[in-house]
Amino acid sequence: MKKAVIILLLMLIMPCVSMAKATDLKPRFVVCTDIAPAEVEPDDMESMVRLMAYADLFEIEALITSVGWNCDPYPTEWAEYLFRVVEAYRKDVPNLMKRAGQTRFLPLEQENTRQRIGYWPSADYVKSRCVMGSQRGGLQAIGNGNDSQGSDLLIRLADEDDPRPIHVAAWGGANTLAQAIWRVKQTRTAEELKRFVRKFRIYTITDQDMQYSMRMNRAYSSHQWLRSEFEDDLQFIWDEGTWQEQCELGKRYWQQHVEHIQGKGALGKEYPDYKWGVEGDTPSFLYVMPHGLNDPEDPRQAGWAGYHERGICPDSLTNAWTSWQEPTRTLSNGYKIRFYPDELHDFMARMQWADEGKGNQNPKVVVNRHKGLHPIHLKAKAGKTIQLDASSSTDPDGDTLTFRWWQQPEIGTKTLAFNNAETAKVSVTIPSDAAGQTFHIICELHDNGPFQLASYRRIILTIQ
Predict the structure, then answer these.
(1) Does residue 156 sit in the same domain as residue 117?
(2) Residue 363 lies in a domain
(3) CA angle 197, 126, 14 (to 5 degrees)
(4) Which of 11, 30, 353, 355 is the Cys-Cys partner for 62 at CB 3.0 to 4.6 Å?
(5) Residues 65 and 145 both lie in one domain
(6) Does one domain contain both 76 and 125?
(7) For position 127, what pLDDT does the model report?
(8) Residue range(s) defining the domain that contains residue 331
(9) What CATH number does residue 423 fall under?
(10) Residues 6+ apart with CB under 8 A from 141
(11) Is the dihedral of CA 101, 392, 22, 151 positive or negative?
C-alpha cells in the first residue's frame, strides 16, 4: 500500500527520477560562501537570494559556510544569515512552484536523488544541505585537523554513482574542497585520486582563501596548490574580472534592484543594500545556469558569466581558465555588459513570481526540431548554405517573439554570412575555405511580455 502511494505521488508531481535523461537533469552545484552580516559584507547574501530564486535549475548539493576575505577564522554564528535566506525561500517557494505548475514536493529521500530541471526542491531539502566547512584559510590549514562537515560531504558526493560533474562555486575560499582532495590523497591510490578530482569543476571569485590585506600573496592560498597539483584533472576557472564587472553593473542598475527585487516576497526582504558592489559572487552560478547559451564544460562559450581562455594565472606560476589579461578581459566584460539586461530582467521576473505567484515565463527555443537546452551539433560542407529554423519556438504566455541569430567570433577563424538574421528562419553561408573548422551560432529570442525575457540555443557547426 505504501509503495503504491509513493508511485502515485511521483506521477502527480514533477519528479526527479533516476530514469530521466541526462539532458533533463540539473547540474550538480556546491557553494562555498563566507556569508556575513550586511554591515560586514552584503554581497554573499545578495547572491544567495538570487540562487534560491533559481533553485529549479540547480541541484543544490551543498551550501558550505567557510573562510573568506572578511573572516579567518569564519565565525560560526554567521551561518545564521544562510539559514535566513533558506527560511525566506520556504515562504516563497509555494509561489515559485506555480511557475512550473508544481503542486507538491517529493519525499526527502527522493529529493536526495537526481533532480530534473524545473523541479523546485523543498526548503527542508535545501536546509539539510547547509553545513560548515573550513573555518581557517590558507594552504597551512590543509591537513589533519581541517576536516569538516563540508569536506566530508564533498567526498560523499563525489563517491556517489552519478556521472554528472560537481560544480563548486567559491564565493569565499575553496579551502573546503582542497581539504577534501587532500584527505582522499592520503587514503586512496593515485588513480583513485585522479578519478575523484575529475569529478569537480571549480569557479573561484578571485582568490579569497586568505585575508583581504594579504590578497597578493598567492602562494599562501590552497587555490594555488589545487592548480599546481591537479592542473590536468581539475577544471579551474579563476574569475579575476567578470565579478568586478558584475559589481559595477549592479551599482549602475541599482534602482531597478530597489524597485523589482528588494521587498519582493520573503526573499526580496532579505536582499540587502550593497556596500562595495552588487552580487560579485553571482557569475559563479550564471556560468553553470542551464539556459541554452553556454555549456559549462567549455569555458570558451560566452554567456552571462563572460568569456574565458586558458592561460597563465595572476600568480605567474599556474595555469587555469581566466579572463584577467587583455584582450580577453575586454572581450569578457563586453559579453557581461551585453547580457546584463537579460540577466537582470530574468531575476526581476522571478522575484515577481516569488511575491505574487504569477508573472512572465521564458520562451522555449526549438531549432531544426531540436528541443531542450544543450548545444545542437550539426555538420555542414564548406562553400554550402544551410538553413536554421526556429519557427517552432513557443512562448508559454503566448507572447510575440523576436529572433536574432549571431556568431560567437572567438571560436573559429572565419566569419559566417547570415541572411535574414532577425527572423525565425535564417540561411547561413559557409566560407569555401572553412573545411575542418568549428563555428558557434546562437539563436537568441526575446518575448514582448513583462521584462522582455530572453532564451537562447547554441548551435555548434562542424565543417566537413
Answers:
(1) yes
(2) no
(3) 100
(4) 30
(5) yes
(6) yes
(7) 98
(8) 14-356
(9) 2.60.40.10
(10) 67, 134, 175, 179, 222
(11) negative
* DSSP letter (8 states) at residue 209: S
The answer for residues whose C-beta is within 8 angstroms of residue 61's C-beta and 6 or more apart is: 28, 29, 30, 129, 153, 157, 166
pLDDT digits (tens, 9 = 90+) for 305-356: 999 999 999 999 999 999 999 999 999 999 999 999 999 999 999 999 999 9
Q: How many CA atoms lie within 13 A of 369 on its CB side?
A: 0
338 found inside a domain: yes
Are residues 210 and 108 both part of a single domain? yes
Q: Is the dihedral of CA 100, 63, 339, 304 positive or negative?
A: negative
The domain that holds 352 is classified in CATH as 3.90.245.10
Among 304, 323, 356, residue at a domain's last position: 356
pTM: 0.93
Residues 300, 386 within the same domain: no
For residue 322, what pLDDT is reported? 97
| pLDDT score of 13 | 41
pLDDT at 9 over 50: no
Q: Are residues 97 and 204 in the same domain?
A: yes
pLDDT, tens digit (0-9, with 9 covering 90-100), for 48-103:
999 999 999 999 999 999 999 878 899 999 999 999 999 999 999 999 999 999 99
Which residue in 332, 66, 309, 36 sits closest to 177, CA to CA?
Answer: 66
State how many domains the chain has: 2
- Is residue 370 within 8 A of residue 460, CB to CB? The reply is no
Place of cell 532564451: 455
Instruction: Answer whether residue 391 is part of any domain.
Output: yes
Among candidate residues 234, 242, 104, the one with its CA nearest the CA of residue 167: 234
Asked if the model's pLDDT at residue 168 lies above 50, the reply is: yes
pLDDT of residue 412: 86
What number of other Cβ atoms are within 10 A of residue 297's Cβ?
10
349 phi, psi to nearest 5 deg: -65, -40
